[in-house]
Amino acid sequence: MTVIYLDTLFLLNSCMDYLLLLCSARLAGEQLHRFRMAAGGVLGGLYAAAAVLPGMEFLLHPVCKIGSAVLMVLVGLGASRRLLRQGVIFFALSCAFGGGVLAIGLLGGQGLSIGGGLVYSGMDVKIVLLSAAGCYVLFALALSRVGRHTAGNGDLVPIQIKVFDKEIHLTALIDTGNTLSDPLSGKQVVVADTHRLVDLFKQGEGPRREELSAPDRALGRLNTGRWRGRFRLLPYRAIGVECGMLLAVRVDSLLVNGKDEGSVLVAFSPTPVSDGGGYGALIGAISGK
User: Fold this and answer.
1) Is 186 in the same domain as 215?
2) Are residues 10 and 132 in the same domain?
């Protein structure tokens, strides 16, 4: 007869589910909402603990398993606009993880086991937590090496944006696929996270987040006072977007690696440009690289 300790079952499944959610977001190139992911992991741990209680065996039914997994994805990854993509990655990683645990069992390992779709270990709870922390460190190191952009290889450059008496400093990714340019000057357009640009504006001057989905309606409000004539709409094409419009503002100067590129357009990205917060803007083939 196998004795199951609820605290170990809860902690182990919570940690594993959190890591699966984290990995899904990283692989999908999404921003990491760690609090939501932790909540999703806790939800998975609670489900695992409840499923082994007397009279709760119905929770192990495939429909309940799928429902709990979907709910966990909604809680942990629901802030993403690409929820379906992350959900598919999450289920794929879960299958891969299950196969890995079974492989360890076939090799004679006694650390982890799967029963009814739940992960369990007979190890002391402290060892379980230390093992989970070690897995996270290894996981973070591995992903940081995959597709990482660094300043050392020239992918990332410091930029400085100035307008009127305001200036902000950002880290930008040199994106050769970014061919968005100003049709009048021919200069490359900087595409930046909207929340990184708020310090360029006084209260009420900048665009509201809800206006980015319909920027043509915001021009009348924005192009007033000292900002008259600075805001423009830029047509763009991207994967899944045949003909979209970006709101852009003309700034007084852009410094790339300390070199002044003069007055350029800076576009407001309606979605995060970074895969994890390592940079806040995209630039194309600017001579300051």
Assistant:
1) yes
2) yes
46 contacts 53 by C-beta, under 8 angstroms: no
Residue where a domain terminates, one of 86, 115, 145: 145
pTM above threshold 0.85: no
Decide if pLDDT at 61 tops 70.
yes
pLDDT band at 151 (very low <50, low <70, confident <90, very high): very low
pLDDT mean across residues, the chain = 74
| N- to C-terminal Cα separation, the chain | 66
Q: How far apart are CA 149 and CA 270, in angstroms?
A: 22
255 vs 253: CA distance, rounded Å: 7
Residue 67 one-letter amino acid: G
Whether 222 shows a pLDDT value over 80: the answer reads: yes
Q: Which residues contact 73 (CB under 8 A, 6 or more apart)?
A: 21, 40, 83, 86, 87, 90
Tell me: do 215 and 279 sit in the same domain. yes
Which residues pair with residue 268 across a beta bridge? 192
Amino acid identity of 120? Answer: Y
Separation CA 143–CA 276 (nearest Å): 11
The pLDDT tens digits of the residues spanning 86-138 come to 778 777 777 766 555 555 444 444 555 445 555 555 545 555 555 555 555 65
Contacts of 243 (CB under 8 A, 6+ apart): 235, 237
Number of domains in the chain: 2
| Cβ-based neighbour number of residue 192 at 10 Å | 25
| Residue 62 DSSP class | H
> Domain span at residue 221?
156-283
